[in-house]
Amino acid sequence: MSDTAGESLADRLVAANFARCDGVLHVSGLDLRGLAETYGTPFFVYDADLFRRAYRDLAQAVEGFAVVDYSVKANPVPAIIRVFRDEGAGAEIASGSEFAASWAAGIEPRHILFAGPGKSDLDIEATVAGGIGEIHLENSEEMARVAEAAGRHGVVQRVAIRINPGPDAQGGAMRMGGKPSPFGFDEEELEAIVDAVEAEPRLRLSGIHLFAGTQGLAAATLLSQWAYGLSLAERVAGRIARPLETVDLGGGLGIPYFSGDTALDLGAIRAGMPALIARVASDPRLATARIVLEPGRFLAGPAGLYVAKVRAVKLSRGSRFVITDGGMHHHLAASGNLGQVVKRDYPVTAVVDRGGPRSPCAVVGPLCTPLDMLARATPLPDLAAGDLVAVLQSGAYALTASPTGFLGHPRPAEILVDGGTAREIGPAGW
Fold first, then answer.
1. Which residues form the Orn/DAP/Arg decarboxylase 2 N-terminal domain (predicted)?
2. Are residues 249 and 394 in the same domain?
3. Structural domain for 392, as ranges
4. Residues of the chain with pLDDT under 70
5. Where are the alpha helices (DSSP H) in 87-218?
6. Whose CA is closest to 140, among 189, 89, 177, 71?
7. Residues 115 and 125 reside in one and the same domain
8. 189, 67: one domain
9. Per residue in 284-307, pLDDT tens?
10. Per residue in 336-345, pLDDT tens?
């Protein structure tokens, strides 16, 4: 999904995922203006059918090779986790709170995996006591603390080794390995770490975890990373002289956010499956393993919109500024302040756009900082106070990745639309 002449990324995303009726943007048949009247602005709205579509499309693309779990960090609202649970997903978590949210959503603890470089004693205690399926070890101190917790609870805890792979496995917009990293054990020390885990009677080494990068849009890169992960799994299984139970190949599947981005080609992913399936089937060390992909952004991102109301429009030295009641305190990623080096615009659209002329404008929020800018030069029609704008691709890494307490503005509503019915699912609805 790349831009074509006269058609913006926002236009393409609206056409692919939503609908306009007489120029008015709808989510699953519901007019966004009506949602704004009911719930107030700004708000997040999520389409449950789009969550399901993303999950099913990916699950079908990797069928026979891997199962798909949901990375809860992308959006941890239990109602959203529950949508993916109902599709058959387990959960990948990064904290005790996400463990509780996943459990509240109905995911059995044995279907939950726990990764993260700085797990607290409370997190380890809660997850071991709760019967979590697997804890992914990231450093030697953590290994010892998990073993101690397992001893206190009289269990042998299933663990995986998270591996910081070498440079051959790298790719994606944000590389997670191949360099000094707080994440996992360096590939160069893999055998020594395997031996250390095997020597601990309160731990059972059941798998490995590889996460080479995030926001990957190239199918060939992902397929190469997954093949590399299988090589590491074979190496570990050979060292312990028994088959592995879990091979977690991570997430990292991306979605288009910026002009020029091309959507991940699931057809190319599907075309790469026969070789990977044959490789797994031919190796008894891997043939019975649960091979896992655990994306978050890919599953949740396209289903969400962040909708804000225009408070004022002004011209300043020839530039148009659309000032809204939403901003970086709710959507830090869209402002470019969550990891972007060069700040680029997320796709933004007017909720009412009947096809008139558009011109570039900056969309800014109400905060007293120049960082509070949701778009810098996005093409929008003429707007006035009371109109609505929507930031697309906002279902993942939005509200919970943002400084909601900054300057004391109210928290936005979060709304799930399912089967033509809307309900609030934010904190009050948990």
1. 51-300
2. no
3. 9-47+302-429
4. 1-6, 168-179, 341, 427-430
5. 96-104, 121-129, 140-153, 190-198
6. 189
7. yes
8. yes
9. 999 999 999 999 999 999 999 999
10. 988 776 788 9
